[in-house]
Amino acid sequence: MKTWARVKALFHRKQLERDLEEELEFHLAMREEKKRARGIAATEAKYAARREFGNTMRVKEICREMWSFRSLETFWRDLRYGARALEKNPGFTMTAVLAIALGIGVNTGIFSVLNGAALRLLPIPRASQVVSVDQIFHGKIRRNVHGEGSLFSYPEYQEYREHNHVFSGLLAYEPFLQATLGGANPQQLFGAATSCNYFEVLGVRPAEGRAFLDTDCSGPGSNAVVVLSNNLWRTTFHEDPAVLGESVVLNRSRFTVIGIAPPGFGGTEPVPSAFWAPVTMQQALEPERDFLGDANMSWLGLLGRVKDGVSLREVRADLGVIAGRIDQQHAGRTTTLAIHAATFLGRPEERQFVFTIGGVILVAVGLVLLIACANVANLLLARASARQREIAIRLSIGASRWQLIRQLLTESLLIALLGGAAGSLLAFWSFEAITQFVLAHLPHGFPQLALNMSPDYGVLGYSMGLTVMTGLVFGLVPALNATRPDLSTAIKEDNLGVAGSSGFLRSTLVGLQIAVCMILLIAAGLLMRGLYSAQTIDPGFEMANVTEAAFDLGSEGYSEERANAFQESMMARAASLPGVDAVAEGSEAPLSDNHSGTGFLLPGETEGRQMEFNRVSPGFFSLLGIPIVRGRDFTAGEARAGAAEIIVTESTARTLWRGQEAIGKVLRESGGAERVVIGVVKDAQVSHLGETDRVYAYLPAGPKEQARMILLVHSAGGYESVAKGIREAAHALDPELVVDVTKLEDNLEIWRTPSRIVAALSGALGTLALLLASIGVYGVVSYGVSRRIREIGIRMTLGADGKDVMGLLLRQAMRPVLIGAAAGVAGCAAVSQILSKVLYGIGSHDPIAFIGVPVFLLAIALLASYIPARRATRVDPVVALRYE
Amino acid sequence: MEKQGDLVQGTLDMLVLKALRRGAKHGYAVAEWIHESSNDVLHVEEGALYPALHRLELRGLLSAEWGSSENNRRAKFYSLTAAGRKELAEAAQYWRRMSGAIARVMQTA
Q1: Do A53 and B46 lie within an 8 Å CB cutoff?
Q2: How far is B40 from chain A (nearest CA, A)?
């Protein structure tokens, strides 16, 4: 009420003044009239009325104040004054706004990527009602996992769905289900197996056809129906409405298309789904596995729509009871539930990963913003000393210090707002494009992501908050410094004045900039060096001229016999291709993201050990150029039989049987089979680039594993012709098979890409930081020179030559730079310890980064000081002495 | 008491509300009404009256409207809002309790 009346009054200021005037005027007139009626003379009556009334000005003042927002109005006045001050000095304003725009822009951009990846609510109607449910086990855990451990089994889902009191609907889905869409051009798709209330709970209506009915999920194997994504419908079926009711083949099973999802809907994962099938069809989609009946299998994500008026706490309490009941069937296990508003990448494992990486990057871009702040603070300090007289005069005629600080801070906020707005616009406009570019250039094997990076309230709030904070950070110190209450000296001080404490502050700021810049640049340098070593590393085996081919026989429903027959004739056909000189198979391609491990026991030991292993065919080692140091390779017969022999690496032999002959030693797999060592091969980084596993073994590829064997082909000829030959050979055997042929070298890309992206990002940030820091150094030195023209003139009149002056100026300019650089190097030594743990291939004490970067940075700083200093040495002493 | 007829802060607000109970009045009429109703005992200072009127208007207890006075001049007329009526009732009740209590205290020997 009050506020609103005041806001109205704000816009009717003049009206209000007039009304008040008229009201009081009327009162006086009435009184005057009354006095006249009593017979008092006209002039006397007028004066008497006024006298009785008292001070009309004071009354007006009180009323006026009552109607006004004093703080708002002074703010408005400060703002106008600040705008005028900025307008008067366009060079300064532009530089400051640009620095802040770059700083805020890069922060907002990074945040909007993070927001799109993990903070935004799901792209569905009334998304704020939908929560994700994940479980975290404690204590004794024996659990089968497909995907993440925090997922649920089907019986668990049914339990939660039947017995909760808080959801209007609870859905389950298997994410990242890979399937081959059959047809003339088979293609690999990501889809989801979902509970039949999936679309209903999400509130998504199919654009064409219908969603699932409850009867579609009535039991295992029930209703081979599928909803296609709009994207798939558009690209593969050319928006043909006749596809409804037709059947499509997914992993060799026929599914009837019942609906098309609305445009833009890709499910609830950052990798968009191309299709949705009932969860009860799981085994048709993944023939080699049966998840539905396994009560102890993690494979389903849960999303629930909370009933109106139910709080998150009530949801947690209600589901907690159900979790407790399930725990009773598993002695020694307790489950806690993680229940959050549903977002992309919401599972605890994903969350931790995204927030760690995101945190590191946000700190880095925060540092860039800090450099920008130091820059602007420095400019403000320089300007404040130019304005010292103005400020001193205002202080001496009675402005309070607080008023002046407020005025100066308003100016800083104005700069920050201009910069923030420009930077945010820049970020919204460019980051989406940059991210799309990066996503589109991920190497083979990275799934395509769909991130929505358009600004929402979260992003706007972040950039606004950051902007205001920025304005305060760079404005406060200069404002406090400029209004130091030592009036008399300031008024007297002329331009000859030595900068005093603000000079010290400026040097400190330069030092800080250099230190922060140094940290960013060395980190970038370390990352680049890491990238370089990743590009040039010798993994210990031959990658060039090796082609790898994977056939998804398992999910295509191949039986053991058929798989064996297929692989055998495939090997033969590949071996006869022109230029091919070696063919082998392995269950894991070297440096792929698949890993197999098992537990084993040494005779006489009770404590189990872990090893990573690969199942390989004879010829695997010679194809990859891994020398057999002792013993022998598997024979074809051993491979066919899946025999109990084993070949270990040198490290393994050293670790397990130090000083003894490894050949002939026995170890027992946790499955029970005893294996005899028949050979020792040289170590190779086949599992993780840059790491040699201490225990790594090769088992013979037996008949049971043929369905998932990967074909490796070594050829002297070009990759293209070999790849074509392999595809043709495979299709001759099975025309509908999806064949995934790549260069083995591409597996290196998977290892290099994260460090390449990080190196590119940190390189860009480092460049930005360097640019800002050198502007800072340049600004401070050139300001110092312009303030000391007279001093320089005197020195030169007294016989100093250009060299002396230059030396003096450079010494003074470089002192804070050197101190900052030293601090930066020390700081980065700490940072690199952390980085070397997170990212592959970074030595924490890389001499090239630690010496090269500081030298480079110092050279740039020297250049930034040299240019303005040179101007000083060209000064004509006569002109300089007259210079005011 | 040095100066007879001074008003305690807060009491003035109540008197202004009371003055407007029978209908809209302009500022001058409010002052006159209080003066006359108190048998010329209470004298409202204009310097306090107008700030009080504006304060009450801001609080939403009064509404104001421009109209013409008995001698055909433009004047600002104040009238009670519903909130103003409620406030008056509460203030009056409080005043009765307080003045009764003070009177009893003063009457005891």
Answers
A1: yes
A2: 15
B100 interfacial to chain A (CB closer than 8 Å): no
- The most confident of A58-67, A158-167, A185-194, A792-801, by mean pLDDT: A158-167
In this prediction, residue A517 carries a pLDDT of: 87
Q: Residue B43: which domain range?
A: 11-107
Number of alpha carbons in the 13 Å side-chain half-sphere of residue A44: 7
Looking up tokens 């009785």 gives A52
Let me know whether A56 and A78 are in one domain.
no
* B46 contacts A59? CB cut-off 8 A: yes
Whole-prediction pTM: 0.70
d(CA B105, CA B95): 15
- In a domain, residue B2? The reply is no
Q: How many domains does chain B have?
A: 1
| A684 in the same domain as A563 | yes
Q: A97 and A50, same structural domain?
A: no
Q: How far is B94 from chain A (nearest CA, A)?
A: 25
Let me know whether A318 and A181 are in one domain.
yes
- A186 shares a domain with A316: yes
Q: How many domains does the structure of chain A reveal?
A: 5
Q: For residue B4, tell me if it sits in a domain.
A: no
Q: Kindly report the CATH number assigned to the domain that includes residue B45.
A: 1.10.10.10
Alpha-carbon distance B61 to nearest alpha carbon in chain A (angstroms) = 11
Residues A376 and A465 in one domain: yes
As a three-state string, the secondary structure of A355-379 is HHHHHHHHHHHHHHHHHHHHHHHHH
> Quick one: closest CA in B to A50, which residue?
B46
Q: Which of these three, A325, A342, A359, is where a domain ends?
A: A342
Q: CB neighbours (10 Å) of residue A121?
A: 16
Say what the ipTM of the complex is.
Answer: 0.87
Nearest by CB: B73 against A29, A54, A62:
A29
Whether A482 contacts A412, CB under 8 Å = no
- What is the H or E stretch that residue A192 is in? strand A187-194
* Residues of B whose CB is below 8 A from A67: 54, 58
Statement to judge: residues A267 and A326 lie in one domain: yes
| Most confident of the following: A111-120, A258-267, A595-604, A805-814 | A258-267
CB atoms within 10 A of CB A476: 15
Contacts of B60 in chain A (CB under 8 A): 1-2, 5
pLDDT of residue A499: 46
Question: In this structure, are A552 and A421 located in the same domain?
Answer: no
**Phi, psi angles (nearest 5°) of residue A726:** -65, -45
pLDDT in tens, A624-678: 999 999 999 998 888 878 788 899 999 999 988 888 888 999 888 876 778 899 9
